[in-house]
Amino acid sequence: MSEVIVASQHDERVNDRLRERAPALRVLAVPPGPVAELPEGASVLFSRPHPGWKTAPAPVGWPFDLRWVQLSSVGIDWYPGWLFDGPVVTCARGTSSSAIAEYVLAAILAVAKDIPNLWVHSPAEWKLRSLGAVEGTTLGLIGFGSIGRAVAKRALAFGMKVIALRRGHGPSDVDGVEIAGSAVEVFARADHVVLAAPATEETWHLVNRHLLATARPGLHLINVARGSLVDHEALLAALDSGRLSRATLDVTDPEPLPAGHPLWTHPRVRLSPHSSPGTPALLDAVADRFLQNLARFRAGETLAEVVDPARGY
Protein backbone atom coordinates (compact mmCIF):
# COMPACT_ATOMS: atom_id res chain seq x y z
CA MET A 1 0.00 0.00 0.00
CA SER A 2 1.24 3.53 -0.76
CA GLU A 3 1.87 6.09 1.96
CA VAL A 4 -1.04 6.43 4.38
CA ILE A 5 -2.08 10.00 5.20
CA VAL A 6 -4.12 10.38 8.39
CA ALA A 7 -6.25 13.44 9.09
CA SER A 8 -6.34 13.55 12.90
CA GLN A 9 -8.77 15.59 14.97
CA HIS A 10 -6.84 14.81 18.14
CA ASP A 11 -4.48 17.14 19.93
CA GLU A 12 -0.76 16.93 19.39
CA ARG A 13 -0.21 14.65 22.40
CA VAL A 14 -1.98 11.85 20.56
CA ASN A 15 -0.61 12.81 17.16
CA ASP A 16 2.95 12.80 18.48
CA ARG A 17 2.41 9.32 19.91
CA LEU A 18 1.36 8.12 16.46
CA ARG A 19 4.36 9.75 14.80
CA GLU A 20 6.75 8.25 17.36
CA ARG A 21 5.41 4.73 16.96
CA ALA A 22 4.87 4.83 13.21
CA PRO A 23 7.55 7.18 11.80
CA ALA A 24 6.54 6.47 8.19
CA LEU A 25 2.96 7.59 8.85
CA ARG A 26 1.91 11.09 7.80
CA VAL A 27 -0.32 12.54 10.52
CA LEU A 28 -1.90 15.87 9.62
CA ALA A 29 -3.83 17.78 12.25
CA VAL A 30 -7.33 19.00 11.33
CA PRO A 31 -9.85 20.86 13.51
CA PRO A 32 -12.22 18.78 15.69
CA GLY A 33 -15.87 18.53 14.81
CA PRO A 34 -17.57 18.42 11.41
CA VAL A 35 -15.21 18.25 8.46
CA ALA A 36 -15.64 20.73 5.61
CA GLU A 37 -12.56 19.47 3.80
CA LEU A 38 -9.58 17.22 4.38
CA PRO A 39 -5.94 17.35 3.32
CA GLU A 40 -5.32 16.08 -0.18
CA GLY A 41 -4.69 12.35 -0.24
CA ALA A 42 -5.98 11.67 3.29
CA SER A 43 -7.39 8.15 3.33
CA VAL A 44 -8.01 7.92 7.10
CA LEU A 45 -9.91 10.21 9.48
CA PHE A 46 -9.04 9.79 13.17
CA SER A 47 -11.96 11.52 14.86
CA ARG A 48 -13.09 12.30 18.37
CA PRO A 49 -16.39 13.43 19.93
CA HIS A 50 -17.32 17.08 19.49
CA PRO A 51 -20.60 18.93 20.17
CA GLY A 52 -20.80 20.14 16.59
CA TRP A 53 -20.76 16.70 15.00
CA LYS A 54 -24.27 15.50 15.80
CA THR A 55 -26.35 17.97 13.80
CA ALA A 56 -23.84 18.75 11.06
CA PRO A 57 -24.95 18.09 7.47
CA ALA A 58 -22.76 15.99 5.24
CA PRO A 59 -20.13 18.21 3.62
CA VAL A 60 -19.98 18.63 -0.13
CA GLY A 61 -17.76 15.92 -1.54
CA TRP A 62 -18.13 13.53 1.38
CA PRO A 63 -16.47 11.07 1.90
CA PHE A 64 -13.67 12.70 -0.09
CA ASP A 65 -10.86 10.13 -0.51
CA LEU A 66 -11.46 8.45 2.84
CA ARG A 67 -11.32 4.69 3.13
CA TRP A 68 -11.56 4.39 6.91
CA VAL A 69 -12.77 6.43 9.91
CA GLN A 70 -11.44 5.57 13.38
CA LEU A 71 -13.32 6.98 16.37
CA SER A 72 -11.64 7.47 19.75
CA SER A 73 -14.94 6.89 21.55
CA VAL A 74 -16.95 3.75 22.16
CA GLY A 75 -20.44 5.19 21.80
CA ILE A 76 -21.44 6.70 18.46
CA ASP A 77 -24.25 8.98 19.61
CA TRP A 78 -21.99 12.01 19.18
CA TYR A 79 -21.95 11.53 15.41
CA PRO A 80 -24.43 12.08 12.55
CA GLY A 81 -25.93 9.11 10.72
CA TRP A 82 -24.31 9.99 7.41
CA LEU A 83 -20.86 9.34 8.89
CA PHE A 84 -21.68 5.62 8.88
CA ASP A 85 -22.96 5.49 5.31
CA GLY A 86 -19.53 5.84 3.71
CA PRO A 87 -16.16 4.27 4.52
CA VAL A 88 -15.83 1.66 7.25
CA VAL A 89 -16.01 3.18 10.75
CA THR A 90 -14.32 1.61 13.78
CA CYS A 91 -14.55 2.57 17.45
CA ALA A 92 -12.33 2.41 20.53
CA ARG A 93 -14.25 -0.25 22.41
CA GLY A 94 -12.29 -1.50 25.42
CA THR A 95 -9.71 1.29 25.65
CA SER A 96 -11.22 2.81 28.81
CA SER A 97 -13.00 -0.19 30.34
CA SER A 98 -10.51 -0.73 33.17
CA ALA A 99 -10.54 2.92 34.20
CA ILE A 100 -14.34 3.07 34.18
CA ALA A 101 -14.55 -0.17 36.17
CA GLU A 102 -12.23 1.28 38.82
CA TYR A 103 -14.48 4.35 39.04
CA VAL A 104 -17.49 2.08 39.57
CA LEU A 105 -15.81 0.13 42.36
CA ALA A 106 -14.69 3.38 43.99
CA ALA A 107 -18.31 4.60 43.95
CA ILE A 108 -19.53 1.35 45.51
CA LEU A 109 -16.86 1.43 48.21
CA ALA A 110 -17.57 5.10 48.93
CA VAL A 111 -21.21 4.25 49.64
CA ALA A 112 -20.45 1.14 51.71
CA LYS A 113 -17.79 2.88 53.81
CA ASP A 114 -19.51 6.29 53.90
CA ILE A 115 -16.56 8.10 52.40
CA PRO A 116 -15.81 11.01 52.78
CA ASN A 117 -18.20 11.45 55.73
CA LEU A 118 -16.24 8.84 57.67
CA TRP A 119 -13.17 11.05 58.02
CA VAL A 120 -12.89 12.92 61.33
CA HIS A 121 -11.09 16.16 62.09
CA SER A 122 -11.25 16.64 65.87
CA PRO A 123 -11.42 14.59 69.12
CA ALA A 124 -15.11 15.46 69.43
CA GLU A 125 -15.82 13.57 66.21
CA TRP A 126 -13.97 10.42 67.35
CA LYS A 127 -16.91 8.05 67.67
CA LEU A 128 -17.17 4.42 66.65
CA ARG A 129 -19.08 4.01 63.40
CA SER A 130 -20.74 0.96 61.90
CA LEU A 131 -19.97 0.67 58.20
CA GLY A 132 -21.54 -1.24 55.37
CA ALA A 133 -20.01 -4.17 53.50
CA VAL A 134 -19.42 -4.87 49.84
CA GLU A 135 -18.88 -8.63 50.12
CA GLY A 136 -22.15 -10.51 49.79
CA THR A 137 -24.04 -7.66 48.14
CA THR A 138 -25.45 -7.89 44.64
CA LEU A 139 -24.25 -5.90 41.66
CA GLY A 140 -26.54 -5.48 38.67
CA LEU A 141 -25.21 -4.62 35.23
CA ILE A 142 -27.31 -3.10 32.47
CA GLY A 143 -25.02 -3.90 29.55
CA PHE A 144 -22.45 -6.66 29.48
CA GLY A 145 -19.93 -5.50 26.93
CA SER A 146 -16.33 -4.54 27.58
CA ILE A 147 -17.15 -2.14 30.44
CA GLY A 148 -19.66 -4.48 32.06
CA ARG A 149 -17.21 -7.35 31.99
CA ALA A 150 -14.43 -5.24 33.49
CA VAL A 151 -16.76 -4.18 36.31
CA ALA A 152 -17.92 -7.77 36.88
CA LYS A 153 -14.34 -9.02 37.17
CA ARG A 154 -13.56 -6.55 39.94
CA ALA A 155 -16.89 -7.01 41.71
CA LEU A 156 -16.42 -10.78 41.83
CA ALA A 157 -12.99 -10.25 43.38
CA PHE A 158 -14.71 -8.31 46.18
CA GLY A 159 -17.07 -11.22 46.82
CA MET A 160 -20.12 -9.59 45.24
CA LYS A 161 -22.86 -11.46 43.44
CA VAL A 162 -23.21 -10.26 39.86
CA ILE A 163 -26.25 -10.34 37.58
CA ALA A 164 -26.18 -8.83 34.11
CA LEU A 165 -28.62 -7.90 31.37
CA ARG A 166 -27.27 -8.11 27.85
CA ARG A 167 -28.45 -8.35 24.28
CA GLY A 168 -29.29 -11.87 23.21
CA HIS A 169 -30.00 -14.93 25.28
CA GLY A 170 -28.20 -17.97 26.59
CA PRO A 171 -26.11 -18.67 29.69
CA SER A 172 -23.29 -16.47 30.88
CA ASP A 173 -19.83 -17.11 29.47
CA VAL A 174 -18.21 -15.51 32.53
CA ASP A 175 -17.94 -17.67 35.63
CA GLY A 176 -19.84 -16.15 38.52
CA VAL A 177 -22.05 -13.87 36.41
CA GLU A 178 -25.74 -14.68 36.13
CA ILE A 179 -27.68 -13.44 33.10
CA ALA A 180 -30.93 -11.68 34.01
CA GLY A 181 -34.09 -11.88 31.97
CA SER A 182 -35.04 -8.20 32.19
CA ALA A 183 -34.07 -4.82 33.57
CA VAL A 184 -36.87 -5.22 36.13
CA GLU A 185 -35.17 -8.33 37.48
CA VAL A 186 -31.84 -6.51 37.77
CA PHE A 187 -33.33 -3.53 39.61
CA ALA A 188 -35.41 -5.74 41.91
CA ARG A 189 -32.47 -7.87 43.04
CA ALA A 190 -29.42 -5.61 43.06
CA ASP A 191 -27.96 -3.38 45.77
CA HIS A 192 -25.95 -1.46 43.17
CA VAL A 193 -26.91 -1.12 39.49
CA VAL A 194 -24.41 0.04 36.87
CA LEU A 195 -25.61 1.43 33.56
CA ALA A 196 -23.11 0.40 30.88
CA ALA A 197 -25.30 0.21 27.78
CA PRO A 198 -25.02 2.32 24.62
CA ALA A 199 -27.31 5.25 23.87
CA THR A 200 -29.90 4.06 21.35
CA GLU A 201 -33.60 4.57 20.74
CA GLU A 202 -34.22 1.42 22.78
CA THR A 203 -32.26 2.63 25.80
CA TRP A 204 -33.56 6.23 25.87
CA HIS A 205 -35.01 6.78 29.37
CA LEU A 206 -34.67 3.08 30.10
CA VAL A 207 -34.49 4.09 33.76
CA ASN A 208 -37.93 5.62 34.18
CA ARG A 209 -40.64 5.78 36.84
CA HIS A 210 -41.91 2.30 36.04
CA LEU A 211 -38.48 0.67 36.35
CA LEU A 212 -37.50 2.65 39.43
CA ALA A 213 -40.75 1.62 41.13
CA THR A 214 -39.52 -1.99 40.95
CA ALA A 215 -36.11 -1.19 42.45
CA ARG A 216 -34.92 -2.91 45.58
CA PRO A 217 -35.31 -0.38 48.42
CA GLY A 218 -32.04 1.43 49.05
CA LEU A 219 -30.66 0.78 45.56
CA HIS A 220 -27.54 2.68 44.50
CA LEU A 221 -27.63 3.66 40.80
CA ILE A 222 -24.36 4.29 38.95
CA ASN A 223 -24.39 5.71 35.42
CA VAL A 224 -21.17 5.53 33.40
CA ALA A 225 -22.91 5.13 30.03
CA ARG A 226 -24.92 8.08 28.73
CA GLY A 227 -27.21 10.53 30.49
CA SER A 228 -30.02 9.77 28.05
CA LEU A 229 -30.53 6.35 29.65
CA VAL A 230 -32.06 8.03 32.72
CA ASP A 231 -35.23 10.06 33.12
CA HIS A 232 -33.85 12.64 35.54
CA GLU A 233 -37.26 13.67 36.86
CA ALA A 234 -38.07 10.06 37.69
CA LEU A 235 -34.65 9.65 39.30
CA LEU A 236 -35.18 12.68 41.54
CA ALA A 237 -38.58 11.36 42.63
CA ALA A 238 -37.08 7.97 43.51
CA LEU A 239 -34.30 9.63 45.50
CA ASP A 240 -36.72 11.93 47.34
CA SER A 241 -38.97 9.00 48.26
CA GLY A 242 -36.03 6.99 49.58
CA ARG A 243 -36.52 4.22 47.04
CA LEU A 244 -32.96 4.93 45.92
CA SER A 245 -30.31 5.65 48.51
CA ARG A 246 -27.78 7.17 46.15
CA ALA A 247 -27.14 8.02 42.51
CA THR A 248 -23.56 8.30 41.25
CA LEU A 249 -23.62 9.99 37.86
CA ASP A 250 -20.57 10.44 35.68
CA VAL A 251 -22.82 11.35 32.75
CA THR A 252 -25.94 13.49 32.40
CA ASP A 253 -28.20 14.77 29.64
CA PRO A 254 -27.26 17.43 28.73
CA GLU A 255 -23.64 17.79 29.75
CA PRO A 256 -23.23 19.83 31.81
CA LEU A 257 -26.65 20.21 33.37
CA PRO A 258 -28.02 23.77 33.36
CA ALA A 259 -27.29 25.92 36.38
CA GLY A 260 -29.86 25.43 39.10
CA HIS A 261 -30.77 21.86 38.10
CA PRO A 262 -31.67 19.96 41.30
CA LEU A 263 -29.20 17.16 40.60
CA TRP A 264 -26.33 19.59 41.29
CA THR A 265 -27.22 19.92 44.96
CA HIS A 266 -29.30 16.86 45.81
CA PRO A 267 -27.86 15.29 49.00
CA ARG A 268 -28.12 11.77 47.61
CA VAL A 269 -26.48 12.50 44.26
CA ARG A 270 -22.78 12.42 43.44
CA LEU A 271 -21.94 14.07 40.12
CA SER A 272 -18.64 13.88 38.29
CA PRO A 273 -17.83 15.58 34.96
CA HIS A 274 -17.72 12.56 32.61
CA SER A 275 -14.28 11.73 33.96
CA SER A 276 -14.43 7.99 34.65
CA PRO A 277 -12.42 7.06 31.50
CA GLY A 278 -9.74 9.67 32.11
CA THR A 279 -6.39 8.26 33.20
CA PRO A 280 -2.85 8.86 31.93
CA ALA A 281 -3.08 5.50 30.15
CA LEU A 282 -6.05 6.53 28.01
CA LEU A 283 -4.06 8.43 25.37
CA ASP A 284 -1.71 5.49 24.90
CA ALA A 285 -4.64 3.07 24.70
CA VAL A 286 -6.36 5.17 22.03
CA ALA A 287 -3.14 5.47 20.04
CA ASP A 288 -2.49 1.74 20.38
CA ARG A 289 -5.98 0.90 19.12
CA PHE A 290 -5.46 3.11 16.09
CA LEU A 291 -2.07 1.60 15.28
CA GLN A 292 -3.40 -1.95 15.63
CA ASN A 293 -6.10 -1.18 13.11
CA LEU A 294 -3.62 0.69 10.93
CA ALA A 295 -1.57 -2.51 10.57
CA ARG A 296 -4.74 -4.31 9.46
CA PHE A 297 -5.62 -1.48 7.08
CA ARG A 298 -2.21 -1.56 5.43
CA ALA A 299 -2.40 -5.34 5.07
CA GLY A 300 -5.87 -5.19 3.55
CA GLU A 301 -7.33 -7.16 6.48
CA THR A 302 -10.68 -6.73 8.22
CA LEU A 303 -10.53 -3.95 10.79
CA ALA A 304 -11.27 -4.56 14.47
CA GLU A 305 -14.27 -3.09 16.31
CA VAL A 306 -16.26 -2.10 13.24
CA VAL A 307 -19.23 0.03 14.28
CA ASP A 308 -22.76 -1.36 14.02
CA PRO A 309 -25.07 1.68 14.17
CA ALA A 310 -28.01 -0.52 15.13
CA ARG A 311 -26.20 -1.53 18.30
CA GLY A 312 -24.99 1.93 19.16
CA TYR A 313 -21.28 1.07 18.99
TrEMBL record:
<keyword id="KW-0560">Oxidoreductase</keyword>
<dbReference type="InterPro" id="IPR006140">
    <property type="entry name" value="D-isomer_DH_NAD-bd"/>
</dbReference>
<dbReference type="Pfam" id="PF02826">
    <property type="entry name" value="2-Hacid_dh_C"/>
</dbReference>
<dbReference type="GO" id="GO:0051287">
    <property type="term" value="F:NAD binding"/>
</dbReference>
<dbReference type="InterPro" id="IPR036291">
    <property type="entry name" value="NAD(P)-bd_dom_sf"/>
</dbReference>
<keyword id="KW-0520">NAD</keyword>
<protein>
    <submittedName>
        <fullName>D-isomer specific 2-hydroxyacid dehydrogenase family protein</fullName>
    </submittedName>
</protein>
<feature type="domain" description="D-isomer specific 2-hydroxyacid dehydrogenase NAD-binding">
    <location>
        <begin position="106"/>
        <end position="275"/>
    </location>
</feature>
<dbReference type="GO" id="GO:0016491">
    <property type="term" value="F:oxidoreductase activity"/>
</dbReference>
